[in-house]
Amino acid sequence: MTEEERQARINDAIEHLKAGQDPEKAAEAKRLAEEREKALMTMESNESGTEAARSRIAPDFVIQDNPNSHIRHVIGVVSGKGGVGKSFVTASLANLMRSAGYSVGIMDADITGPSIPKMYGLHGEIIGDEYGSFPMQTDNDVEVMSMNVLLETEETPVIWRGPVIAGVVKQFWTDVQWGNLDYLFVDMPPGTGDVPLTAFQSLPLDGIVIVTSPQELVSIIVKKAYNMAQMMNVPVLGVVENYSYMSCPHCGEKINVFGESTIDEVAGELGIPVMGKLPMDPAYAQNADLGICYRSEVPALSPAQEILAAL
Ligand SMILES: Nc1ncnc2c1ncn2[C@@H]1O[C@H](COP(=O)(O)OP(=O)(O)O)[C@@H](O)[C@H]1O
Ligand SMILES: [Mg+2]
């Protein structure tokens, strides 16, 4: 593929985001728009995010709100490395807050490794109107926007360069009509690259949740994520330890698969709360694979629920 062709494809995909051009979908888009408009009439403020969160954004990085997005709290979910279950924790936090009666959305900002739609069994195309795209709704009424539902097939790899990917994250904010949300969870790609940087700089984040697993480097990984947030002036709400232990199916004994956890010490050193220690549970993986992640109850996240509800 030539560089020109590649650019054309990128532009195509981005156009996709802006509006559903298919006339057949116009009626559905109109219905959704009307529904949202009704809901929005009850809102007092037309800005998303808390004032404190907005005031942290440097003037150069301010991105435009969508007129039809009214989001009370924006929460980033980050991890130092991939495969620690960050997306599972993001979805579980969303499901927990949803079942507590809040309106909730997930922005899947892991553009090159999107896994949120699969966990909810979401397929199909995004529709939109002149104000932007509509997120998809999961069966438990969580609003989701992800690169995966914008691609031609789920197997299409996203092989774009950092700045282009970071641009998509901004579009997921500006060009998506999120409607009325109490919480928008942003599933960030792992590490400290272009996309987390853009999200930290541009989105009115109330704070971040760090997800980790109990392995040797946990102290370094958590501190790196913590320091990045500090440098960007974003509060760290706490840390979630995933794969914390496994319960023996026969006797219920807790087995520390990855060795003894040090998360309490690390969190204590940084002065941040532990928001939950999640077991490794084959039923969690199975429900996620089946696209019914919302059927899993994750009681270990109740400290997180309390912290989020208090924001
Ligand atoms: N606590 C857990 N118990 C069992 N399976 C889990 C758990 N956390 C995550 N998984 C599964 O492990 C896989 C990787 O998790 P995922 O959330 O996609 O990781 P990441 O987003 O950090 O790359 C997924 O199939 C997910 O369902
Ligand atoms: Mg993921």
Characterization of the model:
The protein is α/β, with parallel strands linked by helices. The protein has 2 domains: about 1-40; about 50-310, Rossmann fold (3-Layer(aba) Sandwich). About 35% of the residues lie in helices and about 20% in strands. The protein contains 11 helices and 11 strands. The chain has helices at about 5-20, 25-40, 50-55, 85-100, 115-120, 160-175, 195-200, 220-230, 265-270, 280-290, 300-310, and strands at about 70-80, 105-110, 130, 130-135, 135, 140-145, 180-185, 205-210, 235-245, 255, 275-280. The strands form 2 sheets. Strands 1, 2, 5, 6, 7, 8, 9, 10 and 11 form a 9-stranded mixed sheet that branches. α1 (about 5-20) packs parallel to α6 (about 160-175) and α6 (about 160-175) packs parallel to α7 (about 195-200). It starts with a helix and ends with a helix. The mean pLDDT is about 85. Bound molecules: adenosine-5'-diphosphate and magnesium ion. Magnesium ion binds near residues 86 and 87. Magnesium ion binds near residues 87 and 115.
